[in-house]
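Q: What residues go here?
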């Protein structure tokens, strides 16, 4: 399948860092991270296919195709290899880029994500997309917010913005993303990843518990580091913004030395 040309917003100068967002959001949901990194890096915040203002897609579209889109964006950026920072769906896509296009990747930061799923889980993941196809995005918004944030944080302005983004999504892009997630099986090949890698998990993440990230990503990548953010939920870049930004920035500054 031909790669899709993705929309992205770039800022700063220096080694390239590419940010890959969760399913249902877009490149504008990184909090302070892009501005913080831009003091020493060129930061490219992408809208994945079917999200934001990137071209729409429909299922079936395997996660490998999303990875190839990102590879195309890195090549187009013309800055050599990129450090990939991906969260949730974005973290899964980042893993596939590192596997399929290792010559384009200088470092990997995989956050709040798994590398694989048990077979009985895959139909449940696809169903999250199918519900929206049948009943619209309003049918999945509440349960998504509950998985992504702690209850105490759920009424904040930041979560309202997330909810509005979810409700405005094209259901075909949302469903395509969930079907791609359901087909993920990166763990068997993560041993091929040789770049510096950091996996970040949220202590309170109910969508991807830290044990899952540790078992399917950290243990599969030689030399991978593991950081658990205290009190952080799945959307750690929003609810635990300062700690998340510090962890990512510290790792990228260290690997750039």
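A:
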């Amino acid at each position: 399948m031909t790669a899709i040309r993705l929309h992205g917003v770039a800022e700063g100068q220096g080694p390239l860092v590419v940010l890959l967002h969760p399913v249902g959001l877009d490149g504008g949901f990184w909090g302070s991270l892009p501005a913080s990194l831009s003091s020493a890096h060129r930061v490219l915040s992408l809208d994945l296919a079917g999200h934001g203002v990137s071209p729409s897609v429909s299922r079936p579209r395997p996660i490998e195709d999303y990875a190839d889109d990102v590879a195309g964006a890195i090549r187009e950026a013309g800055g050599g290899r990129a450090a990939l920072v991906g969260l949730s769906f974005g973290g899964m896509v980042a893993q596939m880029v590192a596997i399929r296009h290792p010559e384009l990747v200088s470092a990997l930061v995989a956050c709040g994500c798994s590398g694989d799923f048990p077979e009985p889980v895959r139909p449940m993941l696809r169903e999250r997309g199918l519900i929206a196809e049948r009943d619209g995005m309003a049918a999945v918004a509440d349960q998504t917010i509950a998985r992504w944030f702690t209850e105490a944080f759920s009424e904040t302005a930041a979560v309202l913005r997330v909810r509005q983004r979810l409700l405005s999504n094209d259901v075909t892009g949302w469903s395509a993303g969930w079907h791609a997630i359901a087909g993920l099986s990166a763990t068997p090949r993560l041993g091929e990843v040789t770049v510096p890698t950091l996996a970040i998990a949220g202590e309170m993440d109910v969508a991807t518990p830290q044990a899952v990230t540790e078992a399917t990503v950290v243990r599969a990548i030689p030399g991978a580091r593991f950081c658990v953010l205290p009190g952080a939920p799945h959307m750690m870049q929003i609810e635990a913004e300062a700690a998340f930004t510090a962890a990512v920035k510290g790792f990228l500054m260290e690997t750039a030395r």
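A: Context that may help when evaluating the design: The first strand starts at residue 8 and ends at 11. Residues 8-117+184-255 form a domain with the Rossmann fold fold (CATH 3.40.50.1820).
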